[in-house]
Amino acid sequence: MKSLILVTTVALIAAVATSIAAEPPPLAQSQETTAVQAVAAAFIDDWNRHDMKRFAGLFADDAQFVNVIGLWWHSRAEIQEQHEALHATRMRISHLVATETAVHLLRPDVAVVHIRWELTGDTGIDGVTLPTRRGVMSLVTVRAGRKWQIASAQNTDVIPLPNLPLAK
Q: Is 17 a member of any domain?
């Protein structure tokens, strides 16, 4: 009987240890939200530093990114390559500001982030600085271990629709 209890105890300890080693327990909800907000802040900071290698490091290897004109990129490498091309040309002096950020935890390891943004310094394809742009970005972030990464991004320019009554 004692050996059965000993074997059962050892097996239970091994199972718990394996479970703990495989996946760290989630942080408290406020800590998870803070960690996800840090990813959003790093997105803005890396953009403004024009450091697209670091920017791309925020994304999962198999991340997806749909930009404001509907181009769809299918990996961290492609996201980096396309943003490097943009920041070598029309976005080379751009400055991005988050005017509002909201995090919604869907599960302890998945969160959606919405960022309302303003962009200045876009020189367009002909090199002439364009007016301030405004938009909203949606990020789906996932936690792998303790690190949050962007799995999917959708960026949208907010533009006035024609033939609508003026706001009162």
A: no
